[in-house]
Write a structure and sequence with these properties.
This is NADPH--hemoprotein reductase. The protein is an alpha/beta fold. 38% of the residues lie in helices and 18% in strands. The longest helix has 39 residues, at 15-53.
């Protein structure tokens, strides 16, 4: 208390002094308070302003960010279209069919557009009825084992989850499939069924194209009945004959910066010079070939093993995945086309879409040279489809040749038969057609517009990333055969791969590639037994599987029985990976190695015969061991024969009827215990 008194007042100060001091203290307090209030007000004023600006930010952002043009309805309204043709395409054929249907529409006073479902919001289908005489057509390919194509995956997912009311939607579906596969045209069938379930109105029956037969003829037959159904539904009539309408216009670049010219890149300009991950179909990685060796010791065929270096690419793969490679056409074929058409192939040009609203500005990356387009971007080795012949017919100066081309492109039975024999069965490519029709000399730019895109080729990866993290192995056989016209036709990709020289630098050893994920997977538990059936190059994924099982064993894991059924023609000619397989068997990784040599004896022996021979062991592995079965190779005969053999084994040892055995095997497939990686 004394201390407080001392500190608060000096006892020697008089009363007057005390009053004066209080006046002075008040004035100082006033100044302090005024300063404090002013400061607080100033702070509040600026703070308030900032606070007020915060809600404005989203408004500013929403103005700055353009709305993503994902509404095909708005696009159709803007451009006066009433037919939209969606395509689910893996190799380009469904896209080609969609383009043809959208071009057809003008003959009936309608306007069509082809559309990639990946680029649009398909929930807008419920709004299509806002457009007069509107129709949605779906050209849907089935990929692999009944799967949607990559670009139709989102659409497929939406259809599965959707509860939309599509009662105002009119639709038609054409499916592209292959009868040698278990799930023939699964995607086309599903889209057709699901759209109807959601209330949409089917205006023409589902078309089922079969690539194992004649896909082109299936499409033409469906299309020639589809359009009359459309006419009847909408009360419209054909406006006349088919006419050739160019979709792109040619621009020749005489003075162009060569740094702005595409030289084979799939997407980004100069992407091969300046590689940036992630790598995919539109941005492939340039892999160096580090090994390219012949696998077979004799015979006419060339079977090869290639190794691609993926170091520093950040590419990851699993055993069973596929590697896609972009090949190049044979330069001699390209040069011959240039010579026949009297063209300077090094002319730099662009083909620009005449429809400015189209998402597809060019048929392939432009600007580029004719040589680059014919080498890297266009398919010049497959027989051209009928629409190409129809469009080219106008350029044949000989009346007989022109009539022949038009007849082959027609829907008449005689025309279809002629196309089948003269083009398809004779395997005439565009060069052969130009050679055999001397008066047919189309402008090269129109030919480039008409030819389909050169597609990537898929190979089952023949290695395990656990053992080879920086390398992808390919096992392939070169395709080479003589046609009915006496010409030697060569497979584009395998001939190109065969020519790759390891570690020489430059394009001679580089392969544009990416990895496509697969469902063909080893069991989650290493202790689960596996039965692998893969004759010929069908052994490819199983080399990866066996490498992985060996690696797991080295890690101290318990690895189940690993059984291989392999087949080839002759033991001394084309027994692929003989030394490697013998080593794996010696090490105890490969517990059974069953090899069928089909032509080493009078009666042919195939893998299914060996399965029958070991049927008791096979049943025990499947029934008691819960083994996973894997089949890789030819879909047309081998895969079917193997499946029928399993029906027999299951029926005999499971005491089941044939239908019950079939159901048993189908359930194995559903559970992921019977997997296929097949091709036709």
């Amino acid at each position: 208390l004394t201390a407080m008194g001392e500190s608060s007042m000096d006892p020697t100060i008089s009363a007057a002094d005390s009053t004066a001091q209080q006046d002075s203290l008040f004035s100082m307090m006033d100044v302090f308070l005024i300063s404090l209030i002013t400061g607080l007000f100033t702070y509040w004023f600026f703070f308030r302003k900032k606070k007020e600006e915060v809600p404005d930010l989203p408004k500013m952002q929403s103005v700055a960010a353009p709305v993503r043009d994902s509404s095909f309805i708005e696009k159709m309204k803007k451009t006066g279209r009433n037919i939209v043709v969606f395509y689910g395409s893996q190799t380009g054929t469904a896209e080609e069919f969609a383009n043809r249907l959208s071009k057809d529409a003008h003959r009936y006073g309608l306007r069509g557009m082809a559309a990639d479902p990946e680029e649009y919001d398909l929930s807008d289908l419920s709004r299509l009825s806002e457009i007069d005489k509107s129709l949605a057509v779906f050209c849907m390919a089935t990929y692999g084992e009944g799967d949607p194509t990559d670009n139709a995956q989102d659409f497929y997912d939406w259809l599965q989850e959707a509860d939309a009311d599509l009662s105002g939607l009119r639709f038609a579906v054409f499916g592209l499939g292959n009868k040698t596969y278990e799930h023939f045209n699964a995607m086309g069938k599903y889209v057709d069924k699901r759209l109807e379930e959601l209330g949409a109105q089917r205006i023409f029956e589902l078309g089922l194209g079969d690539d194992d037969g004649n896909l082109e003829e299936d499409f033409i037959t469906w299309r020639e009945q589809f359009w009359p159904a459309v006419c009847e539904h909408f009360g419209v009539e054909a406006t006349g004959e088919e006419s050739s309408i160019r979709q792109y216009e040619l621009v020749v670049h005489t003075d162009v910066n060569m740094n702005k010219v595409y030289t084979g890149e799939m997407g980004r300009l100069k992407s091969y010079e300046n590689q940036k991950p992630p790598f995919d179909a539109k941005n492939p990685f340039l892999a160096q070939v580090t090994e390219n060796r012949k696998l077979n010791e004799g015979g006419e065929r060339h079977l090869m093993h290639l190794e691609l270096d993926i170091s520093n690419s950040k590419i990851r793969y699993e055993s069973g995945d596929h590697v896609a490679v972009y090949p190049a056409n044979d330069s001699s074929l390209v040069n011959q086309i240039g010579e026949i058409l009297g063209t300077d192939l090094d002319t730099v040009m662009s083909l620009n879409n005449l429809d400015e609203e189209s998402n597809k500005k060019h048929p392939f990356p432009c600007p580029t040279s004719y040589r680059t387009a014919l080498t890297y971007y266009l398919d010049i080795t497959n027989p051209p489809r009928t629409n190409v012949l129809y469009e080219l017919a106008q350029y044949a100066t000989d009346a007989g040749e022109q009539e022949r081309l038009r007849k082959m492109a027609s829907s008449a039975a005689e025309g279809k038969a002629l196309y089948l024999s003269w083009v398809v069965e004779a395997r005439r490519n565009i060069l052969a057609i130009l050679q055999d029709m001397p008066s047919l000399r189309p402008p090269i730019d129109h030919l480039c517009e008409l030819l389909p895109r050169l597609q990537a080729r898929y190979y089952s990866i023949a290695s395990s990333s656990k053992v080879h993290p920086n390398s992808i192995h390919i096992c392939a056989v070169t395709v080479e055969y003589e046609t009915k016209t006496g010409r030697l036709n060569k497979g584009v990709a395998t001939s190109w791969l065969k020519s790759k020289v390891p570690e020489q630098g430059g394009s001679s050893s580089l392969v544009p590639m990416y990895v496509r994920k697969s469902q063909f997977r080893l069991p989650f538990k290493p202790s689960t037994p596996v039965i692998m059936i893969g004759p010929g190059t069908g052994i490819a994924p199983f080399m990866g599987f066996i490498q992985e099982r060996a690696w797991l064993k080295q890690q101290g894991k318990e690895v189940g029985e690993t059984v291989l059924y392999y087949g080839c023609r002759h033991e001394r000619e084309d027994y692929l990976y003989r030394e490697e397989l013998a080593r794996f068997q010696k090490e105890g990784v490969l517990t059974q190695l069953n090899v069928a040599f089909s032509r080493d004896q009078a009666e042919k022996v195939y893998v299914q015969h060996l399965l029958k021979k070991n049927k008791e062991n096979v049943w025990k592995l499947v029934n008691e061991g819960m083994a996973h079965i894997y089949v890789c190779g030819d879909a047309r005969n081998m895969a079917r024969d193997v499946q029928n053999t399993f029906y027999e084994i299951v029926s005999e040892f499971g005491n089941m009827s044939q239908p019950q055995a079939v159901d048993y095997v189908k359930k194995l497939m559903t559970k992921g215990r019977y997997s296929l990686d097949v091709w036709s």
